[in-house]
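Repro case for the chain-ordering regression, as requested:
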Amino acid sequence: MNYWLLKSEPHTFGIADLDSAPNQTTSWEGVRNYQARNFLRDDFRLGDQAFFYHSGIAAPAIVGIVEVIREGYPDATAFDPVSPYYDPASTPANPRWHRVDVRLVRHLRRAISLAELKRRAAMLEDFALLRRGSRLSVLPVSAAQWAFILALESAPSA
DNA sequence: GCCAACGTTGGC
DNA sequence: GCCAACGTTGGC
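-- result from build under test --
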């Protein structure tokens, strides 16, 4: 069982969109970074859980939890010339990009902001999200980091 | 294989 | 809107 963090801009696809999606399920598509692709393609397993993180806003934060319900498979948006994620170098015979499917588990009872995570950085040794300049949209989370962040949910904001 | 130019991400 | 970080591209 692995843990992850998935970033999304709420203007594009936020947790509210996942709420209203059929079966509260979505394809995590459009990832166009090789390191993130490798995680999706090679390391995501059925039943893995991920934090749903809102980026690109005034107060970026972890807002929910999703579960992997389908392991990595080719991202067909790369084959579609009309898609914003189109990549002519990716073909059905030789797909370059992969996606997974995830389902909403639940919202967090309160958002855990990036600012709060930074204040707790000492307890989150080497948390990928806090590494200098980490812009990866798919990040691994250790079991210890996962448990620590979930415990924050029940603690007063600090 | 090096490296400068460029584009994107994402916090602030 | 700005800027730092950093991945990608392409000339050489």
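Ordering looks correct now. The longest strand of chain A covers residues 98-113.
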